[in-house]
Design brief:
The protein has no helices and 13 strands. It has about 180 residues and is an all-beta fold. The mean pLDDT is about 85.
Length: about 180
Amino acid sequence: MGGQTSVLTTPVVAFAGIVADDSYVKDIASYVNAEASLQMPFGTVVMQGTNDNDCLTLTATNQAKILGVVAYSAAYQKNTELAVTADANSRLGLVSGTIVQVLKRGRIWVKVEEAVTPASSVRVRCTTAGGGTYGSGAFRTTSAGAGLSMVLVGCRYLDTAAAGGFARVEFDSLLRNQFTAD
């Protein structure tokens, strides 16, 4: 009879897209993944699509109207709303046509592309170009190069995290000029 031979003694701190607290200071809105075929990974930044209720993956600093960060929910249906295969950056997310919960203001856990601290600038990758580890919408602290990333205004890291680790981000995209081009 086979049995469990090991036990995890240090639980995972978080995973990308988990809303970090239950405070009343948060705003989550619903949008539709309007990408033709791209999935939207949890914990990544998305921008306004063509229609009022559409969202798209980030593409360029001069065209992006940031909506917020894709929030995780256990209510998504496996095989119809959740992708079953990872994207080119080994991320699973929400398939095209799915209603996406987007955190516009609040605290959320994100996976960081490089080491960050609470004193770090919050930047987000705008494209898959430039050798990014986690693809469009991924969080970082240094510039990825001209047109490849943007600084998020009204956003800060709350934790120290190593590259590939998780940090809480306090995010506010409501009624602001929320980014500056790198």
